[in-house]
Design goal:
This protein has 630 residues and is mostly beta strands. The protein has one helix and 48 strands. It is elongated, with a radius of gyration of 31 Å.
Length: 630
């Protein structure tokens, strides 16, 4: 459960700027939600054709009354009840009344052409029964719906127990909103627009201000070539069906979205798919309840982004899935109080650009696959993390819900990655494999974190890596690597450029870390066994001869060739056995002989104890006879 927290209000100018964003477009149709990747998804969303107005009925609103010409409709005071199918053109102003559709098994189209409807004690537009309802916004028209702070639930169509209706525009049937006109919805009671079945918005321009949630399509919400602006205290756009795994999805293509939400920007119970257009989300202003969520883009099972432009300024995760996240394209600008991208299962990226300017952890999943694209990450903890956090990992001290496990991994096979991390640069509770791409890391400025950190093995077979950090917990790649890797430490911390040259003086790689460092891991395809290289680390130049593919081993032991990985972790003393439940690594044998004696006396001439430390007193602790010292 989340702890309550508060964020500062966002600058007004930042909010105003988002309204200048534009959209691009293309078209098609389908009713099903498809998880996973793929190209253009606009063909999964229907277009809404302009209705035939030849025999349309006319509803003319005038203050507190209305007149009806044609069709099947009746007037009861200031309430207009449509009882038959067909097309109805609605115009004028209704100062305190409503339109109710009660046409079972009939298809009804309302064409709003300069309609302004206000209802002080209920929903101004309520689709009670219909086979399908279309609200069409006439070309060039401006239309508005407004309700009051309290609903009376006083007519035969309403239910106080079920709280129906609870939105300014409420439909118990499938609802489609189309046309090139505009609709402004002001919901003072609770929700803005609700389709209790499915909701389709195609080509329309809709602005919603809601006390609770903005736009809700329970079974699905599909948006195409639309301009949608929502300001809400709850979620901005949502789909909530949790009883059918094929429903509860959101698909958005080629639209312009500006979403300012107290809670989630977009929340899909199952899958969320987005392509084209632009999406700006500002989420989580003010104080949230303990169980509230203030994420940017959120899905229960899968979240797929194919293309488009995204600006996400979120109190919680910017991109979040309880299942998987797949990014194959798009341009992202992310600032978040928690994770930039978080998946409870797999988080993958194969294209696009992800700029995370502020985050707790930048890119996180139980498993992480990066095969393409550009990632620029600034994080207060780990830059890329496999199974290293939870849904609210950025909000105060919490237990890590994942532990070390061989099923967790980070696999980098392509792309360009730049990480500025205050924790580990990349951290896997399982393995790390690098087979391609480029990765540059400026790690933490303390010895308690590592630029490269894994509980399993770290293996490199291709690509370029330069990872700068501190030597205290430094790790190199392991001996099962097929590409050379060099780890070196410097006497002093600095931001000096890290450079590797071959024996001819050719520069193989060069990188300037953003922060101080005193240890660096360098690997490029040019490093081969038997080669000689000149490495500049921390302003110090070292000539390195690669007697093996791995030069320098873990925990700050750079400068001497070794087996890589965690390296010097204390080891067993001669004559000892591994601890219970552990065995010798493959290819190693137990050292022979007695444990070395503890040095006694004062430090050697010219050396002194580190500041704040004194020489231990007493006798050397004895090693247990049956356990060794692992």
């Amino acid at each position: 459960m989340k702890k309550s927290y508060k964020i500062t209000s966002l600058m007004l100018c930042a909010v105003m700027l988002v309204f200048t964003l534009g959209a691009c477009g293309s078209g098609g149709s389908d009713d099903t939600a498809v998880a996973g990747g793929g190209g253009d998804i606009s063909n999964e969303i229907e277009d809404i054709a302009a209705p035939d107005m030849t025999n349309a009925a006319k509803i003319t609103l005038s203050g507190g009354s209305a007149t009806v010409s044609g069709g099947s409709a009746e007037i009861s005071g200031s309430e207009i009840i449509i009882t038959g199918g067909g097309v109805y053109a609605v115009s004028g102003t209704l100062s305190d009344g409503s339109i109710v559709v009660n046409a079972p098994d009939e298809e009804v189209t309302l064409v709003l052409d300069g309609a302004d409807i206000t209802c002080s004690d209920g929903s101004p537009l309520y689709i009670y029964k219909a086979a399908k309802e279309t609200v069409y916004l006439a070309d060039g028209s401006e239309n508005s719906l407004s309700d009051g702070e309290n609903y009376a639930f006083g007519d035969e169509f309403s239910s106080k127990d079920d709280e129906e209706p609870n939105a300014c525009l409420y439909s118990k049937s499938d609802l489609a909103i189309g046309g090139s006109g505009s609709l402004k919805v002001t919901a003072a009671f609770k929700n803005g627009v609700t389709g209790k079945d499915g909701l389709l918005i195609s080509g329309a321009n809709i602005t919603v201000t809601a006390k609770n949630n903005g736009i809700n399509g329970k079974d699905y919400c599909k948006i195409k070539k639309a301009a949608v602006t929502v300001t809400s205290s709850g979620d901005a756009i949502r789909s909530t069906n949790d009883s059918d795994e094929n429903l509860g999805y959101i698909t958005i293509a080629d639209s312009t979205l500006v979403l300012i939400a107290g809670e989630d920007g977009i929340q899909a119970e199952t899958s969320l798919k987005m392509s084209g257009g632009s999406c700006t989300v500002i989420s989580g202003g003010g104080k949230l309840a303990d169980d509230a969520s203030a994420k940017g883009l959120k899905a229960g099972k899968s979240l797929t982004v194919i293309s488009g432009s995204y600006k996400l300024d979120c109190c919680d995760d910017a991109v979040h899935s309880n299942g998987s996240v797949q990014i194959s394209g798009g341009e992202f600008e992310i600032s978040t109080g928690d994770d930039g991208v978080h998946a409870d299962e797999n988080a993958s990226m194969s294209g696009g650009t992800l700029n995370v300017t502020k985050s707790y952890e930048g890119f996180e999943g139980a498993t992480v696959d990066i095969s393409g694209g550009t990632l620029n990450i600034v994080s207060s903890d780990d830059g890329i993390n496999a199974a290293g956090g939870n849904d609210e990992s950025g909000f105060g001290a919490r237990q890590d819900k994942f532990g070390g496990d061989s099923s967790y991994y980070i696999n980098i096979s392509g792309g360009v990655i730049n990480i500025d991390a205050s924790g580990d640069g990349i951290d896997s509770n399982g393995d790390i494999t690098v087979s391609g791409g480029e990765m540059y890391i400026s790690g933490a400025t303390n010895g308690g974190n590592s630029a490269i950190d894994c509980d399993g093995s770290a293996k490199i077979t291709g690509g370029t890596v330069v990872a700068a950090g501190y030597s205290g917990m430094a790790q190199n790649f392991g001996s099962d690597s097929t590409q050379g890797s060099i780890m070196l430490s410097s006497a002093n911390a600095s931001t000096e450029t890290i450079t590797l040259k071959d024996s001819s003086g050719k520069t193989l790689v060069s990188y300037t870390p953003a922060k101080n460092y005193n240890n660096a891991v360098i690997s490029t395809p040019d490093i081969v066994k038997g080669g000689t290289y000149s490495a500049s680390v921390g302003g110090e130049t070292t000539e390195v001869t690669m007697d093996s593919l791995i030069y320098g081993e873990g925990f700050g032991m750079g400068g001497a060739p070794g087996a890589g990985g965690r390296g010097d972790m204390g080891g067993m003393q001669p004559g000892g056995d591994p601890p219970e439940g552990m065995s010798m690594p493959e290819g190693f044998t137990k050292p022979d002989g007695d444990p070395p004696a503890k040095p006694s006396g004062d430090p050697p001439e010219g050396m002194s104890m580190p500041e704040g430390m004194t020489r231990p007193q007493g006798d050397t602790p004895q090693r247990p006879e049956d356990s060794g010292n692992a």
